[in-house]
UniProtKB/TrEMBL annotation:
Biological processes annotated in GO: leucyl-tRNA aminoacylation
The family this protein is said to belong to: Belongs to the class-I aminoacyl-tRNA synthetase family.
Molecular-function GO terms, alphabetical: aminoacyl-tRNA deacylase activity; ATP binding; leucine-tRNA ligase activity
GO cellular component, one term: cytosol
Binding site for ATP: 590
Domain Methionyl/Valyl/Leucyl/Isoleucyl-tRNA synthetase anticodon-binding as annotated: residue spans: 662-781
Keyword terms, alphabetized: Aminoacyl-tRNA synthetase, ATP-binding, Cytoplasm, Ligase, Nucleotide-binding, Protein biosynthesis
Gene name, Swiss-Prot/TrEMBL: leuS
Motif ('KMSKS' region): 587-591
Residue positions of motif 'HIGH' region: 47-57
Protein name stated in the entry: Leucine--tRNA ligase
Pfam families in the record: Anticodon_1, tRNA-synt_1, tRNA-synt_1_2
Length: 820
């Protein structure tokens, strides 16, 4: 036996780089097609190459890595790839501010981050690395665009867009925040601009995107996506104006049509100008100008005082022939439904407030059951429209449950409208007036229109020699030669599209590029696709719930319809981690000075400790504030493990039968719970279970168990369970305890149910000293559990009669006496 004083110290700084090199040299984490093994595609969201892997990245990636490692030990052929989402604004801003080319800035940053990722000890197969700004990558991003364009899934139209005057670019609706509608990146209030833009027809997929039945995604993400899409059933109804125009409205309550006493058009609605009478012209023009300055979110705020202006024009209610005034008001949004509404003040609160303010008539058309007949003049607010139809001509008396359907049948029969569905989801605006993105592969020809670049000529490469002027135009527009070309169809002089694609386009398909990042015949090697797809577990931040995670589902479905991908969904299971906050409980930021730098932590404690702490300190999906003394607990644990496994028992101690049984029981019970927890990504309880088992092993060692069969088994189980969490120390101890390289190639152990079984005892239950019941309970039952079990016994309940006991006495392992 080795001399205990010769146990070396645990020195992560020495062992971690050593194993990382060895694993890399041996290609230990290479994932190749193997038809004899089941595959597992574990994907974690790729980072933007900002140049620094922060603690949030570690929090997202190292537990994901542990889960992937666990799956591998379970016998799956696991692919865990990594890459960089490298197009986007910060690179361009760095170019403008520091005069460094985005290409150079990006590749320097990637170099740094790749090293940082390696220091994490993750099982990344670096041969599969992909970077979206590489021409070999965006070649295929452009190819996808062309497939979409050829199949009418991409189109251009003039649109009013949100534009950041500081970043000089269009923003997606999701990138505009707050009541003041500021830019997500720089905080500048955005303005509206009319530009010809490119869109993807994501709305074609609205209904299918609402179906989550085949995927295991968090409820919260499903809700966010469902609300984002916001499907409403109702009717489209046409109202004729007195000067012969038609106003179409979308309503969710066609059964209230007889109560429509006025109409409201959004200020931007094209009919506003036509309908406005000369007397009202000035008021309407002023109102429109004022509305234009306001943002949609601000306008949608329900409790805002309603404002509006009468256009002077009238329309005819198509069901009762009433002449009703047409107003314009900013509580009606141009981007929703048709941008026009029929106002039913008796049953819609916003319309009610508007009607009272401007003295417009209120007509009750729904009578709630079991209430006095409603009188419009006495109402102080709109009445929810549930009940029997009244004042509704031929439909009067229709019961509430069929009113909706009958009203639709009626307007369809009269030819004034039809059943319709409306969505909040808009088509995806993908064009950006920026340089650092994938150029949209279109050539504009004055004869032929928008012509896609022939596929053989892809990629349309970004020119490297551009000028950095934040002009609001893409720098590609200012390039002296790049944009001038010839039309692929007629050969005439033509110009390239100078907009680039939204970076969410690049990230909609990166999981496919990882399959074969060097393949140059197609976006991916079909053989790799057949083996690896779909992604089995996808992990990343909840903040991507409505953009990336909707876009990538749309992308996959669109590609499926074009015969490029198969199956309805790209990612079967999704799990979101929470956020690591600063020690001050605030979001980490440089300006607050509360940023925790993983590189410093790795230098001080080693990667394994950082990994263990990140898995331990919070429930993964919730996150928590950082705690710099907490991480000390993790290094102490690993040092203990180190000595537990290396330092023998005192000479001469012989363990008893019961000591060894206890050790085996704890080891297998831990294995059962750790297995369950890995499956369910409950990382914090994995670490705490391992801490407990280590304590049990120390006790067993005190009793002389070191080196016994039971000890050897516990040691092997321990290191295999530790391997996914702390891959380096597990590998080092695996070697030092005499096992063959590598712990990471070991199968996940099987629980020995017999060993894990708790021994049971009979607990006597007394009431006032008299025997009333006997309970079979585990030997290790805690005092609290024993008391609860006794109090819950039917025999005891009879004596308690619903009252609390006076006193409960517990004699460990023997009896509970309840005094009533
Ligand atoms: C008459 C009516 C009566 C309505 C009633 C509601 C209740 P969701 O459920 O969100 O789809 N609406 C339609 N287009 C609008 C727009 N562009 N801006 C503001 N409001 C608009 O809401 C659909 C309902 O919101 C529609 O049904 C319409 O008002 C209003 F008792 O029509 B309703
Ligand atoms: Zn042409």
């Amino acid at each position: 036996m080795p001399d205990p004083t010769s146990i070396p110290m645990y020195k992560p700084a020495q062992i971690e780089p050593k194993w990382q090199e060895r694993w890399e040299r041996d290609g230990l984490y290479h994932a190749d097609i193997d038809p004899h093994r089941p595959k597992f595609y574990a994907l974690t969201m790729w980072p933007y190459p900002s140049g620094d892997l922060h603690i949030g990245h570690w929090y997202a990636m190292s537990p994901s890595d542990a889960r992937a490692r666990f799956k591998r030990m379970q016998g799956y052929n696991v692919m865990f790839p990594m890459g960089f989402d490298a197009f986007g604004l910060p690179a361009e801003n760095a170019a403008i501010q520091h005069g460094i080319h985005p290409q150079q800035w990006t590749s320097q940053n990637i170099e740094v981050m790749r090293q940082q990722l390696k220091s994490m000890g993750a099982m990344i197969d670096w041969r599969r690395e992909a970077t979206s700004s590489d021409p070999s990558y965006y070649h295929w991003t452009q190819w996808f665009f062309i497939q979409f364009y050829k199949n009418n899934l991409a189109y251009q139209k003039e649109a009013q867009v949100d534009f950041c005057p500081h970043c000089n670019t269009t923003l997606a609706r999701e990138q505009v925040h707050g009541d003041d509608r500021h830019c997500e990146r720089c905080g500048t209030p955005v303005i509206k601009k009319n530009l010809v833009q490119w869109f993807f027809r994501i709305t074609n997929y609205a209904d299918e995107l609402l179906d989550f039945s085949t995927i295991d995604w968090p409820e919260q993400v499903q809700t966010l996506q469902t609300n984002w899409i916001n499907r409403s059933e109702g009717a489209a109804v046409v109202f004729k104006t007195e000067n012969g125009d038609e106003i179409e409205v979308f309503t969710t309550r066609p059964d209230t049509l007889w109560g429509a006493t006025f109409m409201v058009l959004a200020p931007e609605h094209p009919l506003v100008k036509k309908l406005t009478t000369p007397e009202q012209a000035q008021a309407v023009a002023e109102y429109r100008a004022q509305a234009e300055r306001m943002g949609e979110i601000q306008r949608e705020t329900a409790d805002r005082e309603k404002t509006g202006v009468f256009t002077g024009g009238y329309a005819i209610n198509p069901v009762n022939g009433e002449r009703i005034p047409v107003w314009t008001a900013d509580y009606v949004m141009m981007g929703y439904g048709t941008g026009a509404i029929m106002a039913v003040p008796a049953h819609d609160q916003r319309d009610f407030e508007f009607a009272r303010k401007y003295n417009l008539p209120v007509v009750v058309v729904i009578q709630p059951p079991d209430e006095h007949p409603l009188v419009a003049d006495e109402m102080t607010m709109a009445v929810p429209a549930v009940g029997e139809m009244v004042n509704s001509g031929p439909l009067t008396g229709t019961p509430g449950d069929v009113a909706f359907q009958r009203a639709i049948a009626y307007i369809e029969e009269k030819g004034v409208g039809h059943g319709a569905v409306s969505y909040r989801l808009r088509d995806w605006l993908i064009s950006r007036q920026r340089y650092w993105g994938a150029p949209i592969p279109i050539i504009h020809c004055s004869h032929c229109g928008a012509v896609p670049v022939p596929e053989a000529e892809l990629p349309v490469e970004l020119p490297m020699d551009v000028e950095w002027l934040p002009t609001g135009e893409s720098p590609l527009k200012l390039h002296p030669t790049w944009r001038f070309t010839t039309c692929p169809q007629c050969g005439g002089a033509a110009e390239r599209e100078t907009d680039t694609m939204d970076t969410f386009m690049c990230s909609s398909w990166y999981h496919l590029r990882y399959l074969s990042p060097h393949y140059d015949q197609y976006p991916f090697d079909p053989e790799e696709y057949d083996y690896w797809m779909p992604v089995d577990t996808y992990t990343g931040g909840i903040e991507h719930a409505t953009m990336h995670l909707i876009y990538t589902r749309f992308f996959h479905k669109a590609c499926r319809d074009l015969g490029i991908t198969r199956s309805a969904e790209p990612m079967m299971q999704l799990r979101n981690q929470g956020m690591v906050l600063g020690e001050d409980h605030e979001k980490m930021s440089k300006s607050r000075g509360n940023v925790v730098a993983p590189d410093d932590l790795v230098a001080a404690y080693g990667a394994d400790t950082v990994r263990a702490y990140l898995m331990f300190f919070a429930r993964w999906e919730l996150g928590a504030p950082w705690n710099s003394s907490g991480i000390e607990g993790s290094i102490r644990w690993l040092r203990k493990v180190w000595f537990t496994l290396l330092e023998p028992s005192e000479v001469g101690k012989r363990p008893g039968e019961e000591d060894l049984r206890k050790l085996r029981r704890k080891a297998h019970q831990t294995l059962a719970s750790v297995t369950h927890d890995f499956e369910n990504l409950n990382f914090n309880t994995i670490v705490s279970s391992l801490m407990e088992l280590n304590n049990e092993m120390m006790l067993a060692k005190g009793a002389g168990a070191f080196g016994t069969e039971a000890w050897k088994e516990a040691e092997s189980l321990y290191l295999r369970m530790l391997a996914p969490v702390c891959p380096h120390i597990a590998e080092e101890l695996w070697e030092r305890t005499g096992h063959d390289y590598s712990v990471h190639l070991q199968p996940w152990p099987e629980v020995d149910a017999e060993a894990a079984r708790e021994d049971e005892i009979t607990l006597v239950v007394q009431v006032n000293g008299k025997l009333r019941d006997r309970l079979i309970v585990p030997v290790s039952i805690s005092e609290a559990d024993a008391k609860t079990a006794a109090l819950e016994s039917d025999a005891v309940q009879v004596y308690l009669q619903g009252k609390p006991p006076k006193k409960v006495i517990y004699v460990p392992g023997k009896l509970v006496n309840i005094v009533v």
